[in-house]
Amino acid sequence: MSQTDRTLGVGMVGYAFMGAAHSQAWRTAPRFFDLPLSPRMRVLAGRDPGGVKAAAERLGWEQTVTGWAELIEREDVDLVDICTPGHTHAEIAIAALDAGKHVLCEKPLANTLAEAEAMVAAAERAAARGVRSMVGFTYRRVPAVQLARQLVADGRLGSIRHVRVQYLQDWLTDPEAPLTWRLDKQLAGSGALGDIGSHAVDLAQYITGEWLTGVSAALETFVDERPYPAGGPSGGLVAAAGETRGPVTVDDAAVFLARLSGGALGVFEATRFATGRKNALRIEVNGSAGSVAFDFEEMNVLQFFDGQDDVQGFRRVLVTEPEHPYISAWWPAGHGLGYEHAFTHQVVDLVEAIAAGTDPAPSFADGLAVQRVLDAVERSAVAGCWTPVD
């Protein structure tokens, strides 16, 4: 990409659930936001020629390849968007960064601490040459979450004392639900802990501006064997069950206590067995002067308690006003946003950072910080004791 060429050529690896969400964002961002660069959806990579071609036609990509290495070699690709299972993140991201491509990588950053550290080292090498990288913790881009962070930063909550985070889903409650890649430790790294618990950890650290310093954890697998998907591996959250069965090698649920760097206590829970809960990412932060509470199942609302107010009680704030983050580009006040909008905001922030020559957030280093917590949780669950976060 030259100084005169304002096009940002994008190549994406993977086209299932996250690939569709990211594609929607790349299509939508330049149509609602005035971006300094114009993203162009150049090429989509996937192993199955027929599958990737059909996905490209459906999602809006110009061309396809069947190998990520071929995508990285292309001169018309300036940015590589990684939407594949965790075991591939490190290899693809490091190769792309070393080749001078900007990188957006889905969370969690990697499957292991060593992989995440290698990715951060590659990101630092690349940054010295003006190449940018970001990890996709998209819930940061929900306007209500942005407002919660601002209230904490402005001191409206006083000293932070308690942080409570839950990420509750129920898509695995059926013991006959198929054994997708997310239930294979070799591919996913961990189960509920990495898949959704990583979001809980990042959200807590992002809103409070503090780090988790130690944990005491327990992990549990409730269903240890499931049917393989019919017709082969599935990249989605659901699939039809086949005849043969295999072992579940990841956790179904994770719970842990934590201390934060500012002295607050934290309670975390991540499960895909919370019957009746579909995508309930909830956080409540209690401070000496106030509290905030957020639930993604009501994503346009932030609950705020001001301890200095003469009229006591939580205030329901509908975060859809033009002065709220990102909102002015969308609909009239009161018209809510949805799940896909956070991915669009992610693209906006990344493109603006690339154009400005600044490091986007969350960085790979932020992703590594989350990975260190996940590693400590796993070690604590095995040892049955309090475990410092490295």
3D architecture notes:
Strand 5 (102-106), helix 5 (113-127) and strand 6 form a beta-alpha-beta unit. Helix 1 packs across helix 9 and helix 5 (113-127) runs antiparallel to helix 10 (364-383). 33% of the residues lie in helices and 26% in strands. The longest helix has 20 residues, at 364-383. The chain is globular. It has ten helices and 17 strands.
- Shape by Cα distribution: globular
Q: What portion of residues is helical? A: 25-40%
Low-confidence stretches: none
| Distinct helical segment count | 10
* Backbone structural class: alpha/beta
Distance N to C terminus: 39 Å
Please provide a brief summary of the model.
Helix content is 33%, strand content 26%. With 390 residues, the chain is of the alpha/beta class. The longest helix has 20 residues, at 364-383.
Summarize this structure as a short list of keywords or feature phrases:
alpha/beta, globular, 390 residues
Secondary structure blueprint with pairings:
Blueprint: E1 7-13, H1 17-32, E2 38-45, H2 49-59, E3 63-65, H3 68-73, E4 79-82, H4 89-98, E5 102-106, H5 113-127, E6 133-136, H6 143-153, E7 160-168, H7 185-188, H8 192-208, E8 212-220, E9 225-229, E10 241-247, E11 253-260, E12 265-271, E13 280-287, E14 290-295, E15 301-306, E16 315-318, H9 339-356, H10 364-383, E17 387-388
Parallel strand pairs: 1-2, 1-4, 2-3, 4-5, 5-6, 7-12
Antiparallel strand pairs: 7-13, 8-11, 8-17, 9-10, 11-12, 13-14, 14-15, 15-16
Helix pairs in contact: 1-9, 4-5, 5-10, 6-8, 8-10
